[in-house]
Amino acid sequence: MSPSPRPSAPACLPFDIASFERLRRPVWVFDDLRKRKVYANPAAVTLWGAVDLDALLARDFSDQSPAVRTRMETIHQKIARGEAVTEHWTFYPLGVPTSVSATISAITLADGSEAMLFEATSLAISPDEQRAAEALRHTPVLVGLFDGKGRRLFANPSRMACFPDQKIFHQAFADPAEAERIWGEALAGEITVLACRVVTSAGEQWHGLTARRAVDPVTGAVGVLVNQIDTSDQVETARELAQARSRAEAAAHAQEEFLANMSHELRTPLTSVIGFAGLLRATPLDAGQTRHLDRIDAAGQALMSTLNDVLDLSKLEAGGVELDSRPFALEPLLDQALGIIEAQASAKSLSLTKGIDADVAAFVVGDPERLRQILLNLLGNAVKFTRDGGVTLSARRLGPDADGAARIEFSVTDTGIGLAPDMIDHVFDRFIQADASVTRRFGGTGLGLSITKRLAEAMGGEVGVQSDLGAGSRFWCVLPLPVASAPETAPISPATVPTAGARVLLADDNVANRELVSAILCSVGHQVDLATNGVEVVAAAARGGYDLVLMDGQMPIQDGVSATRAIRALQGSAARVPIIALSANVLAGQIETYRAAGMDDHVGKPIAVGELLEKVARWGGTRRG
User: Fold this and answer.
1) Residue-range definition of the domain harbouring residue 544
2) Could you tell me if 342 and 445 lie in one domain?
3) Do residues 430 and 327 share a domain?
4) Longest distance between any two alpha carbons in the chain, whole Å
5) Cys-Cys crosslink for 599: which of 63, 299, 461, 594, Cβ 3.0 to 4.6 Å?
């Protein structure tokens, strides 16, 4: 049976196919718009593994990979400029790879549309070389080989799509000086890896680039091999993260400064309120005056507690809460907490009761200030939300924890408004109250219970609540508090401080503070001289004769920190006088600043009289060596 005749030339072709029919090398015409071949000579039919020309022309070539599409677009651009393109291609007719070197040129079909004329020469390359060539064509990495003068020898499709007009190495870079440096390092044998700005067909981008010396496998000449990949998204993400970090740090710093200033401005007047109330308590008072004084002191302590709540929340969120564990008597601390809250309860005619189980140790080891803060938060919350009835503070011993320490449960039970079931899981969250009407009716910041929970967890404990709406609540806190022996000596109090007079230089710009501290110190036999700013205190210290300097931190003309440095720079014994910071700046970083400047100790405002007298007694007879 004779072979079927080949069909006549398609009418769309602008040339006579007779000459191509006799060629032994494959030739075909590809219509890229329609993704079909419109002609192939017998050698091309064989190359593509088709049974005949009709079968080949019927094939649909629209299923192209992104790399092939990009490559075809680049070829279109070149042949449209009249260039002839010669490239290596690997085809997969019937699934079997075939590699050729193809010269591609533009032709215009009879209908005026553009097509591509391929003339191929078969190549004899190994399977590994075929795989390497395919990987290079399809990788998103931009690969380029340049000769010793920077001229492009090779660029894979990804690179051609990104830099279609780059013929010289330096053309792709936004910074010519950077391009020159990279080129010189690579030719010198260095491997350069960096992020750099480049100018691509899509605009300026950031690329991760590796450049190294390489040898052209065709000529053996030394050149430079470059691998690049677009890292603009990663660079932008890193920039945004850095900006976000900077904004967060700035916000944290602003918050820290605000809290420090707020603390200072509130503690300064509180020093007078609480301090002068203490001085009044030492004078003859009738029962009514004593009751009024109790109210003043309770109000001052309540305001102090609110201020400490705000500062403690900041510390807890920053992970900077500090615990001061030491032996203390438990029942007096509970009494103190009830005493502080008593005025608020009396104003609402609420009863306050206390219950301590017999097996609860009299002395335990823990942080008494933090425990007092937890109890005040729970008691204050209970009194606030209770209109009738009363509040009970209880303590009972539970089993030991994993380390053998006694666990004590402190509970505050009230007959107040209670909690809805959907609020119980959120009541310890920040700024949470039952609803907006609760805030309007009862006030408050919604921080107390959140701080209580975080403080308890910092002390190794936990908190919880049982409540029924309209039937009251029971808030509890369980803390590990090891049993302690009774202390052998009691803390120093004003009555036990030695009255042997020390000569004290007090520097404070606030008149009320100067009057208050002078009265406290003079009442136990100390002699006090006054200064109102840093310049005055340095001048007085230079004259000598003082046993101790009490230094405010914030003063006009010259502050306490710079005044301390100036004193430490004096000559002789004046430079060694002990200096105690007497300041409303009580944050850890602020105290560290005072110590770094040369201060020996710190007493915070509002002033605790016992602490002040104890430290004056401790430092009044010493000097720096």
Assistant:
1) 241-291+494-625
2) yes
3) yes
4) 138
5) 594
Give the separation between CA 604 and CA 274, rounded to whole angstroms: 13
Q: Is residue 236 part of a domain?
A: no
Q: What's residue 426's pLDDT? A: 76
HSE-up of residue 249 (Cα within 13 Å, Cβ side): 6
- Could you tell me the CATH number of the domain that includes residue 512? 3.40.50.2300
Sign of CA dihedral 184, 185, 187, 192: negative
Statement to judge: residues 620 and 515 lie in one domain: yes
pLDDT tens by residue, 120-130: 886 666 677 76
Whether the model clears a pTM of 0.70, i.e. scores above it, the answer is no
If you average pLDDT over every residue of the chain, what do you get?
A: 84
Residue the block writes with tokens 């005619």: 349
CA distance 101 to 492: 98
Of 501, 494, 545, nearest to 520 by C-alpha is: 494
Q: Please give the structure tokens belonging to residue 63.
A: 């299923």
Please, what is the Cα angle at 239 between 233 and 240, to 5 degrees?
90
Cα distance between residue 8 and residue 449, in whole Å: 92
8 A C-beta contact, residue 537 and residue 563:
yes
Helices assigned H by DSSP within 223-329: 232-281, 287-317
104 shares its domain with 249:
no
Inter-CA distances, 347 with 382, 443, 599, Å: 14, 16, 44
Condensed to tens digits (0 to 9), the pLDDT of residues 404-431 reads: 678 999 999 999 888 888 787 778 876 5
* CB atoms closer than 10 angstroms to residue 157: 26
Pairwise CA distance, residues 502 & 619, whole Å:
10
Q: Tell me the C-alpha to C-alpha distance, in Å, between residue 250 and each of 253, 255, 313, 319, 320.
A: 5, 8, 18, 18, 18
Q: For residue 81, count CB atoms less than 10 angstroms from its CB and return exposed for 0-12, middle for 13-18, buried for 19 or more.
A: exposed
pLDDT digit string (tens) for 338-362?
988 898 899 899 999 999 999 999 9
The Cα–Cα gap between 382 and 391 comes to: 7
Phi-psi region of 120 (alpha: psi -120 to 50; beta: other; left: phi over 0): beta
Residues 183-214: pLDDT tens digits? Answer: 999 999 999 999 999 999 989 999 999 999 99
First to last CA, the chain: 122
pLDDT at 6 over 60: no
Number of domains in the chain: 4
- CA torsion sign for 583, 584, 585, 587 is positive
Domain boundary among 78, 104, 126: 126
- The model's confidence at residue 472, banded by pLDDT at 50, 70 and 90, is confident
Given 480, 504, 523, the domain boundary residue is: 480
| Token reading at 252 | 């944290």
As a whole number of angstroms, the distance between CA 615 and CA 580 comes to 8
Cβ proximity of 580 and 600 under 8 Å: yes
Which own/partner contact pairs does 65-70 have at CB distance under 8 Å and 24+ positions apart?
Answer: 65/138, 67/137, 67/138, 67/157, 67/158, 68/157, 70/157, 70/158, 70/160, 70/161
